[in-house]
Design a protein that fits this description.
It is a single chain. The chain is built from 8 helices and 11 strands. Strands 7-8-9-6-5-4-3-2-1-10-11 form an 11-stranded mixed β-sheet. With about 290 residues, the protein is α/β, with parallel strands linked by helices. The longest helix has 17 residues. The protein has one domain: TIM Barrel (Alpha-Beta Barrel).
């Protein structure tokens, strides 16, 4: 078994954002949260959680992605717990050293960035954006006006704290006026990216409101083809990742084009496993039948 990464679900009752294309909104979830200090059996569930972390490490997984159906930074207590647990060699025999966080960047200020860097141990921030325009990005991400992200400023602060910066681009129609060349130059010169992931928007196939929004607002196929051709003609293939995609180096940035964000294709290797708040490990986001243990 090969596992590319372990997705850690940071539990929250709801999300401060309401992304127009959010796959998490397509499925109603009811996983019991066992990770709160008021739980009478906290010690037991802490050990259960640690066992799943150890299982992933035992099977060659080196990377943790702090993510979920909300913004991870909404639950500082959980992040504090995870940071402490990962350093506790009595429970986690081999700590994760590659710790990433997926976020739109809302609510992140200097104090929070310091906390993520020095306590939680995050070393890569994957900044999910839906437009290079701050206002359009806020609109598509469904972010409250008071939490609007100034992308250039936030990227500058992320780099100031010595995080690796991955720009995760949700390929919406906001990018249709851009060429692939200009997108790469903007990510490198304006935002200071170390890595880029291009995400083709996912449709569930159930004709939901979100599916309809994606049909009307996904990037044109011509832009996706332009990005693919630009990467192949200007990039150097670095390696084939465990889940089958090729990572390229383009303008000194690591680049991946992700057209299977829900890991629907059946393969021998796991793109990721998911450790949920019920302290159990799954291989799929939207199917409880994918329980591993």
């Amino acid at each position: 078994m090969k596992i590319q990464s372990l997705s850690i679900v940071v539990p929250n009752k709801g999300c401060v954002n309401s992304c127009k294309f959010c796959v998490a909104c397509m499925v109603e979830e009811n996983y019991e949260n066992m990770l709160h200090k008021d739980n009478l059996y906290w010690d037991l569930y802490e050990k259960d959680y640690a066992n799943r972390l150890n299982f992933a490490r035992d099977n060659g997984c080196n990377t943790v992605m702090l993510t979920g159906n909300s913004e991870p930074q909404q639950n500082r207590d959980f992040l504090k717990m995870f940071g402490s647990l990962n350093k506790n060699k009595t429970l986690v025999s081999s700590p994760f050293r590659v710790i990433e966080m997926q976020t739109t960047g809302t609510m992140l200020d200097d104090d929070y960035l310091y906390f993520l860097r020095h306590h939680v141990g995050v070393n890569t921030i994957s900044l999910s954006i839906s437009s290079f325009d701050n206002r359009k990005n806020r609109d598509y991400n469904g972010t409250a006006k008071r939490w609007e992200v100034d992308l250039k400023y936030l990227c500058t602060r992320i780099k100031q704290y010595r995080f690796n910066l991955r720009i995760s681009i949700n390929l919406t129609d906001s990018f249709d006026g851009w060429s692939a060349k200009d997108m790469f130059e903007h990510c490198k010169e304006t935002l200071g990216a170390n890595q880029i992931t291009f995400r083709v928007l996912y449709e569930s196939g159930f004709d939901t409101g979100i599916d309809n929004w994606i049909k009307n607002h996904r990037a044109k196929d011509s832009l996706i083809i332009d990005i693919q051709e630009y990467v192949k003609s200007n990039g150097i293939a670095l390696e084939k990742l465990e889940f089958g995609m090729i990572k390229y180096s383009v303008k000194e940035m690591g680049v991946v084009i992700d057209d299977d964000c829900m890991s629907k294709e059946v393969k021998d290797n796991y793109k990721y496993l998911i450790l949920r708040e019920d302290c159990k490990l799954y291989s799929k986001w939207d199917d409880k039948g994918s329980l591993i243990f």
